[in-house]
Amino acid sequence: MKTAVPDQEDEQLGAGGPADYLGPRSPVRVMQIVELLAESPQGLTLTQLSERLGIPKTSLFSHLRVMTASGHVALQDGTKYGLGPASIRLGAVIAATSSVLAAARPLLDELVRQTGETALLAMLDAEHHQAVYIDRAEGTRPVRYTPTIGARRPLYCTAFGRALLAFQNNDGYIAPYLASDSIVEITANTITAPDALMTALADVRNSRVAATQEEHTLDAGAIGAPVFDRQGNVQYAIGIALPASRLGGEQRSRLTELVLDAARRLSWTLGAP
């Protein structure tokens, strides 16, 4: 595995002085502006921002113009800059995700103790029709399946994906997605027929759990269950990933109950009835 090593420019970006400024596209400067404005609810003038960040006004204005257009910065009273609605929304998303991570962690660890399998928390990326693994407790068995944090999986052919997909709006989201070119055969076991997928999703809605074997990755399987918030929406799923050979018979029933219990408890923590 390759290890990312920062180059000299990356190191200079953290220096905080004018010499490290690389222009209006610098992502580090953008985040510094957002952070400073978040700490200044009363707003800051262009001069104040320039002095505190050590950026020339002309260069800083290039940032602010782009960020204002995107909604991440808002001009207050024509003289001061503050956070825009896009930045406020981003903060809310980060805060919500952080609380889910904190609530899910002990349940992931418990699933590992109970099953020996790798436990995962996934989040819905609705725009790209993917489940994204955002936390993991690695299994303890010598042979185990361990997806990486940040890995993305399709919604239609994975347990976590179906647990998320089944509880989205049917006409506005599910039906158009299943009719799209995104539904392709990945292995010989992948279900791609829209009617069959609709049936599989109906089963997930009834049982509140999804299980797949070798539909996305050969020799791998998973069990995932939806996590509900207080409004009954599903943006997260929790479950386990394991070799397909260990997903059968009575063992499958036992693992399913453990995943369901973790999902119920996490949903309750997030305010679901």
Written account of the structure:
The strands form two sheets. A six-stranded antiparallel sheet has the order 6-5-4-9-8-7, with helices on both faces. It is elongated and about 70 Å long. By secondary structure, it is an alpha+beta fold. Mean pLDDT is 89; it is low at 1-24. The chain folds into two domains: 8-83, Orthogonal Bundle (Arc Repressor Mutant, subunit A); 97-269, 2-Layer Sandwich (Beta-Lactamase). The longest helix has 31 residues, at 85-115. It starts with 7 loop residues before the first helix and ends with a helix. Strand 2 and strand 3 (80-83) form a beta hairpin. It contains nine helices and nine strands.
CATH superfamily of the largest domain: GAF domain
- What count of structural domains? 2
Q: What is the CATH class designation of the largest domain? A: Alpha Beta
Q: SS-based structural class?
A: alpha+beta
First-to-last CA distance: 44 Å
The secondary-structure element order is HHEHHEEHEEEHHHEEEH
Mean pLDDT across every amino acid position: 89
- As laid out across the biggest beta sheet, the strand order is 6-5-4-9-8-7
Rg for CA atoms: 23 Å
Shape: elongated
Low-confidence stretches: 1-24
**Helix count, DSSP H or I runs of 4 or more residues:** 9
Q: Describe the biggest sheet?
A: 6 strands, antiparallel
**Helix percentage range:** 40-55%
Number of strands: 9
Tell me what the CATH architecture of the largest domain is.
2-Layer Sandwich
CATH topology-level fold name of the largest domain = Beta-Lactamase
β-strand amount:
15-25%
